[in-house]
Amino acid sequence: xxxxxxxxxxxxxxxxxxxxxxxxxxxxxxxxxxxxxxxxxxxxxxxxxxxxxxxxxxxxxxxxxxxx
Amino acid sequence: xxxxxxxxxxxxxxxxxxxxxxxxxxxxxxxxxxxxxxxxxxxxxxxxxxxxxxxxxxxxxxxxxxxxxxxxxxxxxxxxxxxxxxxxxxxxxxxxxxxxxxxxxxxxxxxxxxxxxxxxxxxxxxxxxxxxxxxxxxxxxxxxxxxxxxxxxxxxxxxxxxxxxxxxxxxxxxxxxxxxxxxxxxxxxxxxxxxxxxxxxxxxxxxxxxxxxxxxxxxxxxxxxxxxxxxxxxxxxxxxxxxxxxxxxxxxxxxxxxxxxxxxxxxxxxxxxxxxxxxxxxxxxxxxxxxxxxxxxxxxxxxxxxxxxxxxxxxxxxxxxxxxxxxxxxxxxxxxxxxxxxxxxxxxxxxxxxxxxxxxxxxxxxxxxxxxxxxxxxxxxxxxxxxxxxxxxxxxxxxxxxxxxxxxxxxxxxxxxxxxxxxxxxxxxxxxxxxxxxxxxxxxxxxxxxxxxxxxxxxxxxxxxx
Lengths: 68, 466
Prior knowledge:
The structure holds 2 protein chains of 2 kinds. By secondary structure, chain A is mainly α.
């Protein structure tokens, strides 16, 4: 989880290249900046969700040990 | 030995890293120092070899001897590309070809990213066709990928590939005329305006059409904040690939809503019988082709490519088919793909062929300025111009016979039921449209080698030579 935080911060620190010779379009760029934010949140959220599932799984196993 | 000095191709001016030149029929690309550094990076990553071997990128090899040409004095490096036999443009491509070009663009980009390379742009003019196989021709578009960079070609990809495909597949509006009138593509704002409200529930419509359009509007007047936000944005590689893959999955299953008719498999199965008219026409086409062996044959009114295929089987090198019916073109593309034919079906209105377009009217060659074919055939075609569009018969014949030194023209008489249907509402306002006039017009231009009736309704094939 902490890994993703570090990754996101490192990526943010890299300077970007000059724009390509075509006009990238403000709308598309803003959309991608939104996607990037959503993506980081999703990735962060997904690893959080997996952690939660893992914990629930463990407590289920403990409760159902007599069934195996 | 080179006769003439290389000249820069009029369409190759946007990229500061390289330009395409033509010299004595050869296609050369000259790189500046910076462009060459980027090209070398792409080459050393193994990407170019991979793409060329897979047939996705036009063959490219170093051309050090060409560098001696004074036109390349200020360039750092020159390569040579294989020439594309017939150049065509996105506004001439039927749906199946535009879609296949879009998928090629995405595939090239994904393979590039796998090797740490990216593309500078996403122009539909970076793709050409050999038969119905798309090939990427902009070897100057590759540059090193920088982790976190946004996809700067996204807007262009949407406007030149996605939007026209959506216009036809989703909104049932043909895109050819629009793309011809707007070489930069269909603006995102336009498609957003046309999309029904229901599309706001589609995630991919939101991501590629609606939100970018909204973003553009919102950013107007707030450029400084928008640019700041963009400058700081970082898109992880996984996100970049996800966008490309999402578009790929979307486009792959796009198909015109109103079915074109049967699928190719059904169509070819139900057409096993052949009526005598088709059989006769096919025989004459094959005798003509076997005698003339044209390297390139233009098929005006190619329909589903049936006779183009017959010509290829009899020895034609390649066939370029032209038609204005989207359904017929789709079947022709399916035929060419399925039977692996060197047949390129293109959208064209014979009464209004592609004009020269773009910067100084020279960037995109008009149809009639492209290399002429060795032979032409116009089957079940001339009456569409002479009766359907009221073009004087002598001009129709002069036009067709003027396209190539030899060819086949089918004359459809007024007695034919198709013509009767065409004239039903318009009325018979063509007093001089008859076989005698047709022969007279053709003989003014060429020698009639042979003529043969092909149907009971009076249709006749004329084989001419100038």
